[in-house]
Design a protein that fits this description.
Layout (H helix, E strand, L loop, with lengths): L1 H5 L5 H9 L8 E6 L11 H14 L3 E6 L17 H15 L7 E5 L3 H14 L3 E4 L7 E3 L2 E3 L2 H11 L8 H5 L17 H7 L16 H20 L3 H4 L2 H14 L3 H14 L6 H10 L13 H8 L1 H11 L8 E3 L2 E2 H4 L24 E6 L2 E8 L5 E9 L2 H9 L7 E5 L12 E2 L1 H8 L7 E4 L2 E2 L6 E7 L7 H4 L5 E5 L4 E4 L3 H10 L10 H9 L14
Parallel strand pairs: 1-2, 1-3, 3-4, 11-12, 12-14, 13-15, 14-16
Antiparallel strand pairs: 5-6, 7-8, 9-10, 10-16, 11-17, 17-18
Length: 548
């Protein structure tokens, strides 16, 4: 592409620039777009990953140049106002990729990032440009070991609650803290923190192990090198994202994600990608239908070890794809490379441990633990996540943001039978649509998971084992039952019936709506406020309100 560009007579200034940058126009040029950030928990080591990618590119006869995009760390910033920037960073990244890579120089791109929304933004940008691309992440963090058990990052939040209740001695704080410097990478105890990097393996945009292999390992270095090789091959065959991604492949990804546990954030991003591709039939409704028929297959066999290392050792994403294909839950005739189908890619794959990656006839649950529900509390829909109980009836305790809910938890104000209502966390009302994380981790630490339910217009973390409803639409600030809920209201949640409802008489609802202050009162600077004004609701993927 670069050679054809500068051979045109009117491109003499660009030819001079190429000489200055020491780029050989006779070789394919692969851009390496990195989200490296020295203050990022999950993306600190990406420079080393980039160098291995470069080696793979150069060894395969191409040239490589590195550019950077801005990134944030949502892992360590949970529970702070800064995480409001997590989801909006997806669209900022997409715009940055479009800006950096629109110069017609690159024959292909390797995206190097770990945070799910940054990775999703990179893919959105690549779809716009329709340029061959591959992805690689930093990998999963080393587990935090405490009392002979491996933990992920939620461990720190859970220990706050355990210290508050005396179940963990206060003196243990130092021992807990001492493990933190060892933990570079994505959360090893949360599939959701690695979901998008896992899904990219399923469509041929990342090499095997990208979503599950540990950070700083020899295997991770090999994965980075192979990603450079893959990028050169995709560039040579001009296998672009729009050739790889279609309705069938996206539906395969939905099923893959649900079988691994399901991430509400990933579903939101898949809806956004479908809209970017012009695919209209990937919606809340179609995801809800697939969830009813997709069994949960990923199981934590050893409770003392973190889930991602077990998943990786059992066969990782390829192993899960094999189980799904054998059960005919996904379609194997979609292409993952030039002339290579998904079925051919995983033809020789064997599952190393069927107790971790289970076959469909021995599933953990017969249907996905992430489902879609509706009712007068969520008229346009919401995601519900559950692990055991499928129904809950309780009385509302209403909070205007997650900080207020956390404060109530720490003061022991939330008790068995409560429905914790966390408003003001939606895309417009947040603004930014944070992932509800701290409050769920504290509920887990207080051992209230099976005794309360949580509903919110924010996103929901995947580690919680009680009933939690997120992405409620319409969100706070709109004329709806959700915005009018008050302490003491009785709320019913039924996963099997797909229902969430509150029995408020029409006259009472109208009075509450007249009295309600529905303005956005939560924190937000210019970028967040502007993003909130230009994005759609959660059911539409929080994408830009643009007419195409």
């Amino acid at each position: 592409m670069l050679r054809e560009f500068i051979e045109q007579l009117d491109k003499l200034p660009q030819k001079a620039m190429i000489n200055c940058l020491e780029i050989n126009p006779s070789k394919p040029l692969i851009g390496i777009i990195s989200a490296q950030n020295d203050v990022s928990f999950a993306q600190k080591n990406l420079d080393a990953v980039c160098e291995r990618v470069r080696e793979g590119i150069v060894a395969n006869g191409a040239a490589a140049k590195i550019a950077h995009v801005a990134s944030i760390d949502c892992t360590t910033l949970h529970g702070t106002q800064s995480t409001k920037y997590d989801l909006p960073s997806r669209d900022l990244t997409a715009n940055a990729v479009e800006l950096i890579c629109s110069n017609d120089f690159f024959d292909g791109i390797v995206f190097v990032a770990s945070e799910p929304n940054i990775v999703a933004g990179m893919l959105l940008g690549a779809i716009r440009l329709n340029i061959p691309c591959a992805f690689v992440s930093e990998g999963t963090m080393m587990p935090i070991v405490y009392q002979n058990k491996e933990h992920g990052f939620t461990h720190y939040f859970e220990q706050i609650a355990r210290i508050k209740t005396g179940k963990t001695p206060f003196e243990a704080i130092k021992e807990i803290e001492n493990n933190l410097p060892l933990a570079i990478g994505t959360d090893c105890e949360r599939y959701g923190a690695n979901s998008f990097n896992c899904l990219l393996e399923g469509v041929g945009l990342a090499v095997r192990g990208n979503g599950t292999a540990p950070a700083l390992s020899v295997e991770r270095k090999s994965i980075a090198y192979k990603t450079g090789e893959l990028a050169v091959k995709l560039a040579a065959s001009k296998f672009t994202p729009r050739r790889l991604l279609n309705n069938t492949s996206l539906c395969n990804l939905v099923v893959l994600d649900l079988a691994c546990g399901g991430s509400s954030t990933t579903m939101l991003n898949l809806i956004a990608i479908a809209k970017e591709l012009g695919i209209r039939n990937l919606t809340f409704d179609t995801i809800g239908d697939m969830a009813k028929s997709t069994p949960l297959l990923l199981h934590k066999e050893d409770e003392h070890k973190a889930i991602m290392p077990q998943f990786h050792q059992a066969g990782g994403v390829y192993g899960m794809l094999k189980q799904l294909l054998d059960a005919r839950l996904i379609k194997g005739d979609v292409f993952v490379n030039d002339g290579v189908t998904l079925e051919q890619m995983i033809n020789d794959v064997t599952v190393g441990n069927i107790n971790v990656i289970r076959p469909s006839d021995n599933s953990v649950m017969g249907a996905a633990r992430l489902r879609v529900i509706r009712g007068n509390v969520a008229e346009k829909g919401a995601f519900v996540q559950y692990a055991g109980e499928t129904s809950f009836v309780g009385t509302a305790k209403v909070y205007s943001n997650e900080e207020m809910a956390v404060d109530a938890l720490l003061h022991r104000e939330i008790r068995s039978g409560d429905v914790v209502v966390i408003r003001g966390e939606g895309p417009q009302s947040g603004p930014g649509m944070r992932e509800i994380y701290s409050s769920l981790a504290l509920l887990k630490g207080f051992e209230l998971e099976d005794k309360v339910a949580v509903i919110t217009d924010g996103r929901i973390a995947d580690f919680y084992n009680g009933i939690v409803v997120g992405h409620i639409t319409p969100e706070s600030g709109e004329q709806s039952v959700f915005s009018a809920l008050q302490d003491g209201d009785e709320i019913e949640i039924n996963v099997v019936k797909g229902k969430i409802a509150c029995d408020i008489k029409a006259k009472e609802l109208a009075q509450r709506q007249r009295d309600a202050d529905i303005g956005v009162s939560n924190y937000g600077n210019f970028f967040l406020k502007n993003w909130a004004k230009t994005c759609t609701g959660a059911t539409e993927g929080c994408t830009y309100k643009l007419k195409r």
